[in-house]
Amino acid sequence: MAWLVTGGAGYIGAHIVRAFRDQGVEVVVVDDLSSGHRDFVPADVPFAMGTILDRALLDGVFAQHEVSGVVHVAGFKYAGVSVQRPLHAYEQNVTATITLLAAMQAADVPSIVFSSSAAVYGTPDTDLVTERTTKSPESPYGESKLIGEWLLRDQGAAVGLRHTSLRYFNVVGSGAADLYDSSPHNLFPLVFEALLEGRSPRINGDDYPTPDGTCVRDYIHVADLAIAHVAAAKLLDAGDAIEPVYNLGSGDGVSVGEIMEAMAKVTGIAFVPDVGPPRPGDPARIVASGKLAARDLDWRMRHTLDEMVASAWNSRRNATP
C-alpha cells in the first residue's frame, strides 16, 4: 500500500515524499508542476503529471496503485494574490479538493491528511493561537483552506472518511541539498535573491510593539513539518485516535529582525535591510502553540534559526540557475 501526495513535486510536498520513504512507506505523486519541480521527485517514485481537477487522472492513479491514504498538499498558496484572483484560488483549493474527495470515495480510499493553513485565523486576538482560536480568514486563500477543512469534516460524517488537517504558518529551511523554496512571495527566497543580486533585502515596518520593532512570526523547518505529516498518516492507517486539526507552531516565534541578523551571519554577507511601510492589517505578532501536535504527531522544533537559514541558503545555492 502507498500514500498519494498531491503537490508532491513542490517544496513542501517533496519533503513529505522523502519523509515517507525514509520511514519505509511507498509513495505516489500527482503534480501539475505549476509551481513544483519534476526533479524534486525521486526517479523511482510513481509520478502522474496533471491537475487534481482532472477526475479521470485521479481515477486512473487510484486504479493503478493501491493507495491507503492521501496527503493533500496541492493548492494555490498565495494569500495576497488570492485577493486579486479569488475565483482561481477557490477553483484550485475548493473545487479541486471536492474532485479529490469524490475520487477517493469512488476508490474506497479511507484516509486523508490535509495541508491547511494558519491563514484560517486571520488576525487573531491572542498572543498564542490554539486550535480553538476563532477562525476569521482575511483572504480567499484562508477562506478556501477553512472550506477544505469543512469538506473533510462533512465527508467524515457522511462516509466515514478518516482525516486530519494541519495548520501552520511560515515554512522555511531545507531537508536536502536539492530541495529549495522557489516561491516568489516567501521571505527566505526573497532575501536570498536580493543578496545574490547584490541588493539590500526589504522588510515591511520596524515600529511594531515588539522587542525589536519588527513583526514576530512562527517559522518552522520544512523537514519537521514533513515528519508530522507522516506521523498523522500512520495514525490514520492504524485507525488510532486523531484530532480533526492540529497547529504546527513553535510556541514562541521569531522576529523579522532576528531573521535578518541570522541571514547576515549565516551567509557572510553584511547588509542593512531597507525598511518599507508596514503592510495594512499586518499584526505585530502571530505565534501558535504546537502542544497538541507534540502529544500526537512527534511534533517538535528540531532546528535552530541558524540551522533553518543555513539549510535554506545551501539548497538555494545548489539550485540550477
From TrEMBL:
Keywords: Carbohydrate metabolism, Isomerase, NAD. One of its GO terms (molecular function) is UDP-glucose 4-epimerase activity. Pfam families: Epimerase. Residues 3-249 form the NAD-dependent epimerase/dehydratase domain. It comes from the Bacteria. The keyword Glycoprotein does not apply. It catalyses: UDP-alpha-D-glucose = UDP-alpha-D-galactose. Its cofactor is NAD(+). Its EC number is 5.1.3.2. The keyword ATP-binding does not apply. SUPFAM superfamilies: NAD(P)-binding Rossmann-fold domains. InterPro entries: Epimerase_deHydtase, NAD(P)-bd_dom_sf, UDP_G4E. Pathway: Carbohydrate metabolism; galactose metabolism. Belongs to the NAD(P)-dependent epimerase/dehydratase family. PANTHER family: UDP-ARABINOSE 4-EPIMERASE 1, UDP-GLUCOSE 4-EPIMERASE. This is UDP-glucose 4-epimerase. It comes from Luethyella okanaganae. The gene is galE.
